[in-house]
Amino acid sequence: MYGDAAGRRGDDGDGTYPWPEQAPGERWQPPPGVGWQWQLTGRLDTSVKAPVYDVDGFTTTKEQVAALRKAGRKTICYLSTGAWEDFRPDADAFPKDLLGKGNGWTGERWVDIRRVAELEPLMAKRFDMCRDKGFDAVEPDNMDAYRNASGFPLTADDQLRYNRLIAKLAHDRGLAVGLKNDLDQIPELVGDFDFAVNEQCAQYDECERLTPFIAAGKAVFHAEYELPTGRFCDRARELKLSSLQKKYELGPWRRACG
């Protein structure tokens, strides 16, 4: 058993949620407050009582996605779109001069997001994979290179252009797409993205900056690593965030705000 506190909307009982019927070609739109599970490492635990699963796009199989769908879950395909990872099967397809400095995680380096002619087909193939496995949405990671020491002279405009390209690639494939962190650009990008994914907004006193998504009827999937649930859940409920306590390795363990 994993630490799993039930009680958020759609995050108790059997973990199902009364999803509205989607018309053909209509994208999924996760609503504020819906419960979720975020697991990127370890053997996938499909028994967690959460209506939304955010899982690794490469290691999660088409069969696992189908099983989650059959159980009434919606699925989000995690991909890194702003950084190169040496452990991915398409790592050799990235030109070496496209790679910048490390982003703080072993085997990962920022990519030069200005070079969209080279990045777009690489990302398109990844999004094709998410679509073909049956995912409902994409979580593109490392979406704020311009605010980091990437090794490239990136500007806010470079980031906006690239992030909007990522949103278009998802939408062209019928997939919803989330804005990962990148708090400064939420006002410009909330209309381009279907939900947000945030790490540690409570720890850094930034959660109110995500409210444009909530006001637009779009979920904010939020995780804290260093704060116990007693330190952030009350405020998360007030803001209608979908909040979890997780460990940094993002395995199956979770505590949802009750």
What does this structure look like?
The protein has 258 residues and is α/β, with parallel strands linked by helices. It has a single domain, classed as Alpha-Beta Barrel (TIM Barrel), CATH 3.20.20.70. Strands 1-2-3-7-8-9-10-11-12 form a 9-stranded mixed β-sheet. A 3-stranded antiparallel β-sheet has the order 4-6-5, with no helix packed on it. Helix 2 runs parallel beside helix 3. It is globular, with a radius of gyration of 17 Å. It starts with 35 loop residues before the first strand and ends with a strand. The N terminus is likely disordered.
Features:
258 residues; alpha/beta; TIM Barrel; 9-stranded mixed sheet; 3-stranded antiparallel sheet; 12 strands; disordered N terminus
Topology:
Blueprint: E1 36-39, E2 52-56, H1 62-70, E3 74-80, E4 83-85, E5 99-102, E6 108-111, H2 116-133, E7 137-141, H3 156-172, E8 176-180, H4 186-189, E9 195-199, H5 211-215, E10 220-224, H6 233-239, E11 242-245, E12 255-256
Parallel strand pairs: 1-2, 2-3, 3-7, 7-8, 8-9, 9-10, 10-11
Antiparallel strand pairs: 4-6, 5-6, 11-12
Helix pairs in contact: 2-3
Protein name: Endo alpha-1,4 polygalactosaminidase
Region (Disordered): 1-34
Domain Glycoside-hydrolase family GH114 TIM-barrel: 36-252
